[in-house]
Write a structure and sequence with these properties.
heterodimer, A: mainly alpha, elongated, B: two-stranded antiparallel sheet
Chain lengths: 189, 304
């Protein structure tokens, strides 16, 4: 059964067809969310929410764009919201005054499960911190474009479609994001 | 082409986003420009560093996401498929349709009137109206003043009840059988299976265990159900369910437990299943176990 037939079957209430649709895309969705949010739990929440929205709204899908574009639009919107929320939360200073003087709460909080991901433990702390810092320094949209182009291998035109913008705007966004990453890793390149 | 253009093009070239002409122009510029050659080398280093920072979802996360999604979809579609006491309560008692309200109020008054007549004052029900035990009031339905100066209030009440008893008690057992099918709470289903698993001698319990083993979206529930079926591993229905699990369950842990149980109670008809597993099973433990069993049964490891 091709994708259009699967979608029509899912719209008619066929649960198996819906599950096959999910399984066609869910690995790449989970990977995108994991890399964007750098948190398996948050990625899992995005996965649930995205596919639940697809399930609830599958009847409103009118084949105006590809299913991939429609799904990624949902996923990236959820990720953008999450990243923006984090930015808001992070504006709160980590430096607090205590009777013993000022302390940085981030420095006094031990990293949880430091060895839970073997890939990350292989990465030197300095490189990891600098890449994380560069990603944090990007706007939510730059980060999404960077992730979709760099790690997901999506064409700029497709990224523009997903984000509801032009290929040119996606290209500029990618260029800015890469410049930020280059600046952060400057002496290592 | 100047160096600014070239640097933008170098990035896009790395992603395969340039046209043939653009790439040719870029190559011409870079060949003659040491600075842009350095930028190209820097881009390659950047690729290497970023490749190290790429995260793959942790093992098991995808399976967890799929199961949780299945549960949430069941929850979403549940009202359409089965009777829900909560929905019934909400639809007909908390927010009844306008046309039903007078009839409902009348019916409640009638129930209250006859209940008061039928129930002796000393009964346990009388305690609910005692002023020193405040009720959990869901909604006040009616208020009016009596001639005596008293105020009469008619209200709906929601109560949480507790029941204690052994599993021999029909009511307790029926509640557990109902909880075992509650799609909204995998934790509740795991606890329920844990209680039911030692009572598979009852047909209705065994059917619930078989149903959970075959189709519960939570692997923890399926494992508990499998545990409860150990004593019945020689029965045809249990063996059929185990064979289905070995072939189709997406959790290797459940498949491993199922193949172990099937082989502990080895029957000749299992040969075909083992040969099929040798053909398509990815899990090395299951393959090894199947191979060993086939050899012990003097059956061919391959199908022809």
């Amino acid at each position: 059964m091709d994708e259009a037939a699967l979608i029509r079957a899912a719209q008619a209430g066929d649960h198996d067809a819906f599950e096959r649709l999910v399984r066609n895309y869910d690995q790449s969705v989970l990977k995108l969310a994991t890399n964007l949010l750098r948190s398996p739990d948050d990625a899992c929440d995005i996965y649930q929410e995205a596919f639940l929205r697809v399930y609830k709204n599958i009847n409103s899908f009118r084949f105006d764009c590809s299913f991939h574009t429609w799904l990624y639009r949902i996923v990236t919107n959820l990720c953008l919201d999450q990243l923006r929320k984090r930015k808001v939360h992070r504006t709160e200073s980590s430096i607090i005054d205590t009777p013993e003087g000022t302390i940085d709460r981030l420095e006094s909080t031990p990293e949880s499960r430091p060895h839970s991901d073997p890939q990350r433990s292989l990465l030197s702390t300095e490189i990891k911190n600098r890449i994380e810092a560069a990603l944090s320094g990007m706007s939510a949209r730059e980060r999404v474009v960077f992730e979709m182009r760099h790690y997901q291998g999506m064409r700029l035109r497709a990224i523009g479609d997903v984000l509801g913008t032009s290929e040119e705007a996606a290209k500029n966004c990618l260029f800015r994001a890469t410049q930020k990453m280059r600046t952060a890793l400057g002496d290592l390149l | 082409m100047n160096c600014d253009d070239a640097r933008q093009f170098l990035l896009l070239a790395g992603y395969g986003e340039l046209s043939f002409e653009e790439e040719e122009a870029l190559e011409l510029h870079v060949a003659a420009c040491p600075e842009c050659q350095a930028v190209r080398a820097g881009n390659a280093s950047l690729e290497t560093l970023l490749a190290q920072a790429e995260l793959d979802p942790p093992p098991g996360l995808l399976a967890r996401c799929r199961r949780d999604l299945a549960v949430r979809i069941i929850e979403e579609s549940a009202p359409a498929r089965r009777f829900s006491l909560v929905d019934f309560w909400n639809r007909w008692v908390v927010h009844p349709p306008m046309w039903f309200r007078p009839a409902g109020a009348l019916a409640m008054l009638a129930v209250g009137f006859f209940a008061a007549r039928l129930v002796p004052e000393s009964s346990a029900l009388a305690k609910f109206t005692s002023p020193d035990q405040p009720a959990s009031i869901a909604r006040v339905r009616l208020v009016n003043a009596a001639d005596s100066g008293q105020v009469r209030v008619l209200y709906d009440e929601i109560r949480q009840r507790e029941m204690t008893g052994s599993l021999q008690n029909d009511q307790i057992r029926n509640m557990l059988l109902s909880a075992a099918a509650d799609p909204s709470d995998p934790g509740l289903r795991v606890d329920t299976m844990d209680l039911l698993k030692n009572h598979g001698e009852r047909d209705e319990v065994r059917q619930v265990l078989l149903h959970a083993l075959r189709g519960d979206p939570n692997s923890g529930v399926r494992l508990k159900a499998l545990d409860g079926l150990r004593a019945y591993a020689r029965e045809t229905e249990t063996r059929q369910a185990l064979a289905e699990v070995v072939q189709h369950d997406d959790n290797p842990g459940v498949r491993v437990q199922a193949i172990d149980l099937l082989l502990e109670n080895r029957q000749p008809e299992v040969v075909g299943l083992l040969q099929e597993l040798m053909r398509r099973e990815d899990n090395s433990y299951i393959r090894t176990r199947s191979q060993k069993a086939l050899r012990e049964m003097k059956a061919s490891v391959d199908t022809f």
